[in-house]
Amino acid sequence: MDTFELTNYNFYSSRLDMELVTTIVDALKEILEEDKKQEQPLFLKVADNFILNIARRVVQEKKKTFLIGITGESASGKTVFVDNTIEAVVKEKKEGIYTVIRQDDYYKDTSKELIEAGSYDALFKTGFSFDTPDVIDLNLMKNHLAKLKEGLTVVSPKYDFVTCVSDPNGDVKTPAKVILTEGLYVLNEEIRDIMDVKVYVFTPIDVIKERWYKRAVSRGKVGEAADLQFKDVNATAQKYVRPTYQISDCIINGMVDKDYIKIITDKILTKLSEICS
After folding, report:
1. Strands lying side by side in the sheet with 197-202
2. DSSP single-letter state for residue 108
3. Which is the most buried residue in 52, 145, 167, 250, by most CB within 10 A?
4. Residue 218 dihedral angles phi and psi, to the nearest 5°
5. In which band, very low, low, confident or very high, does the pLDDT at 7 lie, cut at 50, 70 and 90?
6. Helix, strand, or coil (residue 93)
7. Which residues of 261-271 are buried (b: 16+ CB within 10 A; e: fewer)?
8. pTM of the model
């Protein structure tokens, strides 16, 4: 192909790409408009140019890994959103489509501190907190995410919320087209610069409190221990988590029924598939 032909090819290719981008933007906007009419819409807020940037990536960066960071307060519904999005993405389990990295797996081992204190109640009374960024190995987590984006396989640690033991030999995580990562601090300064899309899950505090106490029981925290930790959870959320609301690309409703998450995600994916096929 000579220079003239190459120039013409690039021109028409670019023109076709932009037409495809425009079609995707219009389709996604239509879905969001339908979502707004729901009693509990999934999308509460979308940043300017967010849809355009997504459409450009779909069309022009097909071979690149897409890293989506999802945050929100403890018990806001991050895991529910991720799990139900995945169900919509892959009706049959296939390799190479998605990989999930959960921040909860990257808690530092604090089993020694728990044993020395004798109980969770005693540990919390010393001022120890499980809800600040320094108890998470964010450096290791960021390193693993970066490697996955480069096409490398990693082994994530595994954390036990009852014993506070961190096992370095957790799950094998393989590279994929989409990497979903969720946790309290995935949009904090130490790690957010590698995210391609930043999502915040918003849920009212009274709902968060109810959900949190139910989950605390399964993690061995009841009575005073649970009260002490929830007080800390609320204080640290104010300092570390809620500010990331402002820098998120979109705000997701943590009150949405899980079936609706699957429905709207499937609708988006089906539309993208129809346009790009």
Report:
1. 43-46, 250-253, 197-202, 66-72, 178-182, 98-102
2. P
3. 145
4. -70, -15
5. very low
6. coil
7. bbebbeebeeb
8. 0.86
The DSSP secondary-structure symbol of 242 reads G
26: three-class secondary structure by DSSP: helix
Q: What are phi and psi of 23, to 5 degrees?
A: -65, -40
Query: What is the DSSP secondary-structure string of 31-81?
Result: HHHHHHTSSS-SEEEE-TTHHHHHHHHHHH-TTS-EEEEEEESTTSSHHHH
Cα distance from N-terminal residue to C-terminal residue, the chain: 26
CA angle 231, 182, 162 (to 5 degrees): 55
pLDDT at position 183 over 90? yes
Give the residue among 73, 62, 53 at the shortest CA–CA distance from 197: 53
pLDDT of residue 12: 39
Task: State pLDDT tens for residues 90-146.
Answer: 665 556 788 999 999 999 999 999 999 999 889 888 888 888 899 999 999 999 999
- The token pair at 222 is 């009841």
Q: Which of 63, 65, 52 is nearest to 21 (CA)?
A: 52
CA neighbor of 89 nearest in space, from 252, 265, 276: 265
Find all residues with CB under 8 Å of 248, minimum gap 6, and list them: 47, 71, 187, 198, 199, 200
User: Looking up tokens 């604090």, which residue turns up?
Assistant: 110
> What are the strands, taking DSSP E only, across the chain?
43-46, 66-72, 98-102, 154-159, 166-173, 178-182, 197-202, 250-253
| Ramachandran region, residue 46 (left: φ > 0; alpha: ψ -120 to 50; beta: rest) | beta
Block residue for tokens 């979308």: 46
